[in-house]
Amino acid sequence: MNLKSSSRRAFLQSAAGGVIVSASLTSPDTDAAAASEAIRVANPVSGDVLQTQGMLSADRRQLIEQQRAIPVAGNTDVLVCGGGPAGIAAAIAAARAGASVQLIEVAGCLGGVWTAGLLTKILDAENKSGVMDELLTAFASRGSEVARDSRGTVYDPEIAKLVLEELCVDAGVKIRLHTRLVGAVTDSNNRVVAVLTESKSGREAWLADRFVDCSGDGDLAAHAGCRFDVGVGSDCECQPMSMLALLTGIDAEAVRPYIRETAASAKPLLLKLMEDNGITPSYRGPTLRHLHSGIYSIMTNHEYGVSAFDADAITQATIRARREIHEIVNGLRSLGGIWKDIAVVATAEQLGVREGRRIRGRYHITAQDLAKGLKHPESVCQAKFPIDVHALNQDGNKEVSREFKKGGLKPYDIPYPALIAADVDGLLMAGRCISGDFIAHSSYRVTGNSVPMGEAAGRAAAISVKQHVMPHELKWDEIKG
Ligand SMILES: Cc1cc2nc3c(=O)[nH]c(=O)nc-3n(C[C@H](O)[C@H](O)[C@H](O)COP(=O)(O)OP(=O)(O)OC[C@H]3O[C@@H](n4cnc5c(N)ncnc54)[C@H](O)[C@@H]3O)c2cc1C
């Protein structure tokens, strides 16, 4: 590395949880220009890499990585982290509002829990317009009879992958898959100015005027130094994770009583069938859905007490969950009759995470807001989905934790300020990482709400760039159009 980097180090100040960079980073001085000349970018064709220089600490518990220059891979008006239901809506809306948009996604497809998680059901979407309505129409018209009958709310994850990619490409969104956000940089005005990623292309920096955190887990905001909450109580107890799977080898008419869309009795009936035959699923509400022709989806697994921020624990849970799904399907097959040919087509590549960080915003949605049916002048959308806290542990063998439902719920508004980070400027959130308490999150987290949140955050990001104001200075009337 160029020795000039030592003087450059003078304006890089270390700070807990990240690096604070002076505003001069975005207006290069001669030092920065000289440093940029020294940046070697790995050639993606030859498979070349930039080697890491480091020093092991004396106690061998840490590797001190040498300071290095990171190539700037992109510079857009808006950068969206996470291409799940919230992220694709944010990216599409920002691009349609005239912004240049970079979308960064760690998985190999767009859609998040919808696709990599094999979800197959969109909840709380009936009363939504805009991008949500557009997606339901596309999932229905390009999907199976089941998708059409459910107005697109029961969808095929493969069709969803394709539709989301097409919509983003058509809107002009620059998509980067297989890339994980690993850091964020704020300037001396406490404004987010850059993020860092890791991928096969190495470590890269991305500049933007506005950022939208749609990572579900609030990764971008946490790296930017925002305050956040996790789970409930001092142990940060979270809802369980679940792995979903696609199945085949059963006949739709024969298994109709067990299909979730047929009747409320379907889940208890399937649980009884399993238990009567010595199968004890970790999720007490096994949910079977018919997607199209010979394809079904199943949710029958709960992974309790796993932190969304512990890669080792997630790895163990993933292995456990996949094994359980295969064991349950093998168990059903051994019953013979209508189950004799049942088989697993695919298990989800991503273990479904219900809860990560809830980032502190400029409004905090609470259980009291749900109880009174909050009406807010800056309403992004109205949420109606019930309080839905899955059992937090295996005590009592329950499907859900009913004690959190006591306050009740009336349809309530999701206020725009709950999408604006409280602690830094230029950062919005959408999806399950917005600002709210444990109980409120259990309701607003579903995807029929994540999409309108993303749409609002994306439009706000784009319009705030155009008007040279921060997202919190925008009037809601200007965003909603
Ligand atoms: C098992 C399960 C069942 C559910 N059932 C339903 C249901 O039936 N219907 C319903 O509507 N909702 C359901 N939900 C809730 C719903 O799926 C989520 O709350 C919803 O997906 C939130 O959308 P999101 O875009 O905020 O997050 P996600 O869907 O989690 O998307 C986040 C995206 O960000 C990406 N990402 C994360 N971190 C990074 C990073 N550091 N860098 C780059 N990319 C990153 C992820 O890969 C992902 O694509 C369920 C959730 C789970 C887990």
Account of the protein in words:
By secondary structure, the chain is α/β, with parallel strands linked by helices. The chain contains 13 helices and 19 strands. The strands form 5 sheets. Strands 1, 2, 5, 6, 7, 8, 9, 10 and 19 form a 9-stranded mixed β-sheet that branches. It has a 4-stranded antiparallel β-sheet with strand order 13-14-12-15. The chain has a two-stranded antiparallel ribbon with strand order 3-4. A hairpin with a 6-residue loop joins strand 3 (54-56) and strand 4. It is globular. 47% of the residues are buried. Mean pLDDT is 91; it is low at 1-30. It binds flavin-adenine dinucleotide (FAD). Keywords: 4Fe-4S, Iron, Iron-sulfur, Metal-binding, Oxidoreductase. This is Thiamine thiazole synthase. InterPro entries: FAD/NAD-bd_sf, HdrA-like, TAT_signal.
Write the topology of this structure.
Elements: H1 5-8, E1 12-15, E2 18-21, H2 30-37, E3 54-56, E4 63-65, E5 72-81, H3 85-96, E6 101-104, H4 130-141, H5 145-149, H6 157-171, E7 174-176, E8 180-186, E9 192-199, E10 202-213, H7 219-223, E11 228-230, E12 244-248, H8 266-276, E13 287-292, E14 295-299, H9 311-333, E15 343-347, E16 357-359, H10 367-372, E17 379-383, E18 412-415, E19 427-429, H11 438-444, H12 447-466, H13 476-480
Parallel strand pairs: 2-8, 5-6, 5-10, 6-7, 10-19
Antiparallel strand pairs: 1-2, 3-4, 8-9, 9-10, 11-16, 12-14, 12-15, 13-14, 17-18
Helix pairs in contact: 3-6, 3-12
Flavin-adenine dinucleotide is lined by residues 81-87, 104-107, 112-113, 119, 121-123, 180-181, 214-217, 219, 242, 352-354, 431-432, 445-448, 450.
